[in-house]
Amino acid sequence: MVRFFSLLLLLLATFPTLAQSTGVLTGTVRDRKTQESLPGVTVILEGTNLGAASDAEGRYRLTDIPVGSYNVRASIIGYDMLLRANVVITSGNASIINLELSSNTQQLAEVEVVGSRAIRVATAETPLSVQRINTEEIKSNPGGNFDISKVIQTLPGVGGGGTGGTSGFRNDIIIRGGAPNENVYYLDGIEVPVINHFQTQGSGGGPTGILNVSFIEDVTLSSSAFEARYDNALSSVLQFRQRDGNPDRVQGNVRLSGTEVAGTLEGPLAKNTTFLASARRSYLQLLFKAIDLPIRPNYWDFQYKVTTKLSPKTTLTALGLGAIDHFELAVPRKSSPDKEYTLRSTPTIDQWNYTVGFGLRQLLPDGYLNVALSRTQLDNELDQFEDRTTTEESRRVLLTRSGETENKLRLDVNKAKGRWQYAYGAVGQYVEYDSRFFSRVRREVRDAQGQVVSPQVDVRFQTAIDFARFGAFGQLTRTLLPDDRLTVSAGLRADGNSFTTGGANLLRTLSPRVSASYALAQRWNLNASVGRYYKIPPSTILGFRDEAGTLVNKNARYIRSDHYVAGLEFLPTAASRFTLEGFYKKYSDYPVSVRDGISLANLGGDFAALGNEAVQSTGKGRAYGAELFFQQKLTRKVFAVASLTAFRSEFSGTDGQYKPSAWDTRFLASGLLGRKFSKGWEMGFKYRFAGGSPYTPFDLEASQATYFAVGRGVLDYSRLNTVRLGNFQQFDFRLDKKFNWRRTSIDLFLDLQNAFLLKTPGLPTYSFQRTSDNTDFLTTDGQPIRPDGSNAFPILLQDDSPNLTPTIGFILEF
User: Fold this and answer.
1) Half-sphere exposure at residue 384, Cβ-oriented, CA atoms within 13 angstroms
2) Cα–Cα distance between 690 and 165 in angstroms, integer?
């Protein structure tokens, strides 16, 4: 593979290139508070004499830019300087960068002080616990493979993949010790519940992200101090901002790698209308088969955005996102009979989902109005048969047929007047959920005479529910003290629903929140926030019925989390930033399994669905810790990110005793270093570390006695999460070489995930040893296996094999 990469480099190098290949940078500049176009803004490329001023409509355009990477600065009197680092200019596509400037009423004489704020991503409403990454940082992230969910895992306080008690190939995003379903995602202001292929229904995650990085302008992660406009978030709010299509000409790109092929096209549809459209097809299953991994993900995804400027003050946006997925585990060439039997006993997954929506933005005096209408639908199918050697219904172990639909209408008004800012709005949703479920808990067991020793036990139910959700919010922000050194923001929201008992009482979910930011010195800021947040339990919990057909979880309450956060921010230069934060999150009314008396946070999530059982809202939890973060934007051709988080995440069940959650890895660390070289070369390194995830060991005696009947080991919940996996570590490497011709460019890349072949800790699996021909269980006396398993050979199958995922590919822009 590396030899192929070298030959391709040599071949491309023989093509004639233009000595002075150039590109284009264009976009619009707006006021962040009012969304009004800003004319007269100076936009320059650092280290050059190239620059331009925005016109009356806020548009700027720089042409004849030598290809390469630049830092872009935007400035105008009365506004904080804005820095966009590592903007790549190619001859293939025009780079479209939209800029939003924040007004600055402080009387600061020193220009360098204003410049030092250029890297700051905090806002008045969210002054801390916020990070932002732009499209170039996503594209060049080593091991990220253009997957936004993987890139996010390098930020402080963010665990995922092998760091959250799930398999290493997953994209479960664990923020400050919270569950994956505690995060909400917004795409251009429209909520998108599903951003990963093969999502666990009611939870999150999945092996691969859906979002096309070619559409993304930047991603903002808020891990606390959420504005009151966002509902249903307990751990984080992720905002994905998409760019508009090129208004000047049709352009596009084709991305081909070892895992997928993707095509993107954009351009003008009419005078005031642009479009972006893409489709992607995986062949990840072929790569994993070639490198002998059992994972076989197979998917399609599609995305589009159409932007129409109806008038100088009115913009209409239509967007869509969808995916079609098939997932199964195959038997690799290097496998034992025991592992082969286990792999064949896993379910196959077929899913499809989509989100479509319309967003209307109307500029108002001193502000703007947002209206968003969207529909999301998810269909989830799981099938599992004994040993997957047949699809006869008599051999079926598991069946799931479930669907979920959400129709949403959001409205918010945002105003800015002098030192005051305020916003208010409301949301209404109509939710439909249905599920048909079958699970064989225990197969029938007969003795040698054919008499039934243990009868077959099946669980089956069918459900369908629909209900309304609604909520409203208000947010008020004010600057205080001379030179506006203190900024205070307060918000209040309430949410309700028509399904749960007492759910329509908005007083039960009143969630106040207050944040403050104080400028200690020219480059030092002290920030703090206190807030209460609520989340409705997943529809998989609300829609569960018992054998009598009764909806047993109608008494479930909204999950509550109170956040207390304080932090210090230091901005030594316009391109560097240090933050130190401490946080404490207190949970109440958390779902606890009625069957086991254990909090769902201590159980974690599997790959089927979360919450298909009776629960009670009596659990409590806490997560607390500290984070240290450093960021160096592109300076002298080097950029770097480093973070360290130490935390605890603990939840209680019916016994009231706090025990480690499934995501209590204790320590998280990450580092990224990138270097730009001459002639289009770029190299990057990334390292991630997480402490061992806790898990519950098997009750070996009970497992042996019941395995033949139930087909799996029995966990010893008296030792809940008392054992830990080994530490998770991964080192990734990326190498890029860019070639530019007239109106065409190509980026050839090599990406290695887990380049040092470090072990990926995974949960062990309980099984009985199989015969060498894998036709039966091996026994101690050579006789057929007994119903109580007393003559079997128990075995714990370890899952910690190191996996190297190499990707070679190119991006062709035209």
Assistant:
1) 21
2) 11
The three-state DSSP-derived secondary structure of 93-151 is CCEECCEEECECCCCCCCHHHHHHHHHCCCCCCCCCCEEEEEHHHHHCCCCCCCCHHHH
Based on DSSP, count helices (H) and strands (E) in the chain, helices before strands.
9, 44
* Three-state secondary-structure class, residue 521: coil
Residues 6+ apart with CB under 8 A from 137: 86, 151, 639
232: left (phi over 0), alpha (psi -120 to 50) or beta: left
Distance between CA atoms of 611 and 436, rounded to whole angstroms? 14
Residues with Cβ within 8 Å of 636's Cβ and at least 6 positions away in sequence, in order, are none
Q: Are strands 183-187 and 236-242 parallel, antiparallel or unpaired?
A: parallel
pLDDT bracket for residue 338 (50, 70, 90): low
Using alpha carbons, select from 1, 169, 173 the residue that is nearest to residue 753.
169
The contacts of residue 320 (CB under 8 Å, 6+ apart) are 302, 303, 304, 305, 354, 355, 356, 357
Give 225-272 as a DSSP string.
---TT--S-SSEEEEEEEPPPPSSS-EEEEEE-SSEEEEEEEEEEETT
Strands 681-690, 694-695: pairing is unpaired
Percent of the chain with pLDDT over 90: 61
Pair of tokens at residue 92: 């293939």
pLDDT band at 60 (very low <50, low <70, confident <90, very high): very high
pLDDT per residue as tens digits for the range 200-234: 777 767 778 899 989 999 999 999 999 999 999 99
Distance CA 220, CA 234 (A): 16
Q: Cα separation of 186 and 318, whole Å? A: 14
**Which of these, 599, 729, 648, lies nearest to 177 by C-alpha position?**
648
Q: Are 761 and 728 in contact (CB under 8 A)?
A: yes
More confident residue, 775 or 382: 382
Tokens of 775: 């036709």
Cα torsion 67, 71, 74, 75: sign: negative
Average pLDDT over residues 504-527: 95
Query: Is the distance from CB of 91 to CB of 23 less than 8 angstroms?
Result: yes
Q: Name the pTM for this structure.
A: 0.90
Average of per-residue pLDDT across 265-287: 91
Q: Report the phi/psi class of residue 272: left, alpha or beta, with left for phi > 0 and alpha for psi in -120 to 50.
A: alpha
Which DSSP string do the residues of 304-348 spell out, in sequence order? Answer: EEEEEEEETTEEEEEEEEEEEEEEEE---SS--HHHHHHHHTSPE
Q: Where are the alpha helices (DSSP H) in 522-641?
A: 539-542, 600-603
Provide the Cα torsion 56, 59, 64, 67; round to 10°. 160
Going by their DSSP bridges, the two strands 794-797 and 190-191 should be labelled as unpaired
Question: Residue 150 corresponds to which amino acid?
Answer: K
Q: Check pLDDT > 60 for residue 277.
A: yes
**Is 90 exceeded by the pLDDT of residue 331?**
no
End-to-end CA distance of the chain: 26
Distance, in Å, from the CA atom of 795 to the CA atom of 768, rounded to the nearest integer, reads 6
Give the Cα separation of 696 and 704 in Å (integer): 17
Instruction: Note the pLDDT of residue 388.
Output: 60
Q: Residue 289, SS3?
A: helix
Mean pLDDT, to the nearest integer, of 356-375? 97
Name beta bridge partners: 563: 531, 585
